[in-house]
Specification:
With 366 residues, the protein is α+β, with helices and mostly antiparallel strands. Helices cover 47% and strands 13% of the residues. A five-stranded mixed β-barrel has the order 1-2-3-5-4. Strand 4 and strand 5 form a beta hairpin. The C terminus is likely disordered.
Amino acid sequence: MAQDVLTIAWKFMRRRKFATAIKLLESRAETYEGNFEYYVILGIACLYVGDIGSAVTYFQHARKIKLTDTRLLLGQAAIFLRRGDTERALQYYLEIKDNEPNNKIAINAMEFIRTKGDYDTICRWVDTGRIEQFYPPLGVNPEKVVAVAAPAACFVLGLVLVFSLFPHKNYYKGERQDLSSLTLSSEEKNNAQEKDLSGQTYGFILSDKQISKAYLDAIDYFQQHRDNAAQVEINRLLNSNASLSIKKKASVLMDYLEEPTFDTLTDNPSYKAVEAEPSLYLDAWVSWGGKITNAVVNADGSYSCQLLVGYESGEVVEGIVTVRFASVPNITPDQPVKILGKISTRDDKIYLQGRAIYQSIKGGLK
């Protein structure tokens, strides 16, 4: 039986696949315009990935439709709590308790504010992710339930069967996908270079051995959940004299890479590294801190600004990069900011496709 997008998105969220849920929901923006459930679910997903600006926007849309929904109130309270505005957060928690006197999240959050609610502790809880215990609940992850419920005997039997039938698979490293179709053939390894190099320009001239190593490294990084490192090796191949068949397989591998959050991002490249070899980092993700300047809201509703990378303390600017968001994020311009974005280029210049922002500041919401 066909399921609606809201149901499917919530199932993704219960499995903690927030980026997938956000993409799915945002693709149905016109269909669900004015729908309370749509705004609440999307706001919660954005909250969990750290895109606080978008979460605020969606919660505000939801609040125009309904005021007393517990999930909405918990989401808005969490945003105030993240920013250290415990007074405003308490107002929301008290409203929740008026409606649901035994709401455990509100009770625990109020106790946290009473006993540990100083700004430094809140910042640490935000940084470590412990603050998520006060977010709107998602329910138990069904994938974990299945894993825990599986009898030990079946688990052991399954391992025996797996390793006996598929000894070549490196399951102990936690492989994410079956990439057997992307394995290089002997012919590809022995003839890894493009034969005709005339009339073409390459960023990297590699030997057969170097090309094979870069490809195998990309596969290995992917299986280790190091998607940025895999992207670098893929870019090395795509900008090299590697054969067309190897480049095609590298491009297919790139489709498996996932969008990270602040918490899941690995191998975060520095501005200096990206500036030195931008072609290696195209489509990689970065989490860069600094301050913004020259912010502009464009005619199509998008938002552009320049990030002074490394300027959080107001002392040293590592570099200046343009950042573009699809919609206006909730940024306080004169405060330090951390931006999660994807490296892109336009007119031979680097810019970031902004995905999420984080500001550890006190203050209210608009």
